[in-house]
Amino acid sequence: MTQNLHEILHQQFGLKSFRGPQEQIIRTVLSQKSALVVMPTGMGKSLTYQLPSIMLPGMTLVISPLIALMKDQVDAAQKKGLNAAFINSSLSGGQKREAYARLSKGKIKLLYVTPERFRLAEFREALSKNTVSLLAIDEAHCISEWGHDFRPDYTRVGEFRELMGNPTTLAVTATATPEVQEDIIKQLHLPKEDVKPFIFGFERENLELDQMDIYGIDQKIQAAVMLLNQTPGSAIIYFSLIDTLKKFSRGLDQLNMEHLVYHGQLPDRYRKQNQEDFISDKSSLILATPAFGLGVDKPNIRQVIHAEIPGSVEAYYQEVGRAGRDGEKSICTLLYDQDDVSIQMDFIKWANPDPGFIKHVYNLLEDYQERVWHEGLDFLREKMNFYNRRDFRVETTVNLLERWDCITRPKHKPQEIITVMPPPEEFLNQQIYDKRLKRQNEKLLTLVNYAQLEDDASRKQFIYDYFGVFEKELP
Q1: What is the pTM of this model?
Q2: CATH homologous superfamily for 207-337+439-467?
Q3: Of 2-11, 100-109, 238-247, 309-318, minimum mean pLDDT range
Q4: How far is the C-alpha of 39 from the C-alpha of 329, rounded, in Å?
Q5: What's the pLDDT at 452?
Q6: From its phi and psi, is residue 326 left (phi > 0), alpha (psi between -120 and 50) or beta?
Q7: What pLDDT is stored for residue 219 in this prediction?
Q8: Residue 369, Cβ neighbours under 10 Å: how many?
Q9: How many CA atoms does the CB half-sphere of 353 hold within 13 Å?
Q10: Cα–Cα distance between 142 and 147 in angstroms, integer?
Q11: In this structure, are residues 45 and 22 in contact, taking their beta carbons and an 8 Å threshold?
């Protein structure tokens, strides 16, 4: 097996050697033992299920919440010669039928789906004609109510696993506290002793974790300019709100500082172009919302600046983890403005529309279809009687309804939203909503406590303690 593993690594993936515990993880799942992998972004978690998919006799099924990344992941896998595909709500009716036909005939070796896909009988029927050798759960923290990005259908992955005959299971995530790690194993219906844990890569000695007390956007711009001048090289400045990013961008324009921007209001082609220009070093600075960096592996980022406090330690450490992947010294600075805490609390609320809000938006989409087509989401905002420009609950709700296959949006006319079925009642559980909101506010408070620490060493130890790893990790 040693020769096979290294041959495949070189021939299919163009890599000379494994990183960290990759080889151990792959050997574990090839020996039909399940594993839980917690490694920061950029450590190569996808290889731990992509490579076994070549060697295992049956299919490897990857459950992932990231619809936006699936096509890129599958395109990259296909370029490596893997027989990979995805099925999600972004496919047209014809593309879905074609994918289901291939699945029914056992012609897919590596398949990416969202957990919501299991709700559909046609998918379950097509999947049942396959033997699943490996079930990989990406972003596995979504399975836990205690995680920072809980997804209701992830809690049913244990059921899905049983439907597939309890295949070997690989749960991977960049961020999971000990509490969440235990919950992941429990929700998968796996005995703890049957799961081999791999908690690796949290110690990043080359990262310097700094913090500056700041008040207001002008001070933030001054501080960022000073930091950028002190540490030359590629840098990302992260923002929670697009409005703040735009103000920051205008401030840098006035100072004639060249930069790129990346956020959800940009057309896809500009986002992709700006991402490519940053990765290829055509520009050394990008202002971005948290979505930037997912699936991006740029080794020479010298600086990450947070212009607004993120919502959790998990989100913060995932984002700073994009710095210094080449092992060289990199600076990560949190510009801490106490006023941003209340903004982040609003952000948490807007990112979690309550069940009544979701029902109301769906009913409006059903009752006023043509007006929505002509007037867009502004019509929905008007009918919901709120006018705060930063409140994005309508956008979040529409995205949720699409993810749940309650609505469809034709690719060539995305404004023409078509209702399919009302949102399932189990997704509209008020108690779960209340618990999730409370938990996310508690996570924000934990990050506020982190921001009060005085030096790099105490900040790193805080993070190691939070994730339940040693100050010096064991080999």
Answers
A1: 0.78
A2: P-loop containing nucleotide triphosphate hydrolases (3.40.50.300)
A3: 2-11
A4: 20
A5: 94
A6: alpha
A7: 95
A8: 14
A9: 22
A10: 6
A11: no
Q: For the stretch 330-350, what's the b/e string if a residue is b when 16 or more beta carbons lie within 10 angstroms of its beta carbon? A: bbbbbbbbeebbebbbebbeb
Distance between CA atoms of 255 and 310, rounded to whole angstroms? 26
Rounded CA separation 48/452 (Å): 37
* Predicted local distance difference test score (pLDDT) of residue 436: 83
pLDDT at 443 over 60: yes
Spell out the residues 6+ positions from residue 345 whose beta carbon is closer than 8 angstroms to its own. 441, 444
**Is pLDDT above 70 for 322?**
yes
264 compared with 224, residue with greater pLDDT: 224
Question: What is the distance between the alpha carbons of residues 142 and 72, in angstroms, rounded to a whole number?
Answer: 21
The answer to whether residues 131 and 60 touch, using CB atoms and an 8 Å cutoff, is no
The residue-averaged pLDDT of 184-193 equals 89
Residue 353, classed as helix, strand or coil, is coil
DSSP 434: H
Q: Which residues of 231-247 are buried (b: 16+ CB within 10 A; e: fewer)?
A: bebbbbbbbbbbebbeb
**Structure tokens, 60:** 């490897």
Q: How far apart are CA 166 and CA 173, in angstroms?
A: 20
Residues, the chain: 475
Architecture of the 2-199 domain: 3-Layer(aba) Sandwich (3.40)
Residue type present at position 29: V
d(CA 141, CA 183): 9
Q: Name the residue with tokens 């921007």.
A: 261
Same topology, domains 2-199 and 207-337+439-467? Answer is yes
C-beta separation of 394 from 365 below 8 A: no
Helices (H), 294-429: 313-320, 339-350, 355-367, 369-375, 377-383, 393-403
> Domains of the chain: which residue ranges?
2-199, 207-337+439-467, 347-428
Dist CA 47 CA 419 (whole Å) = 38
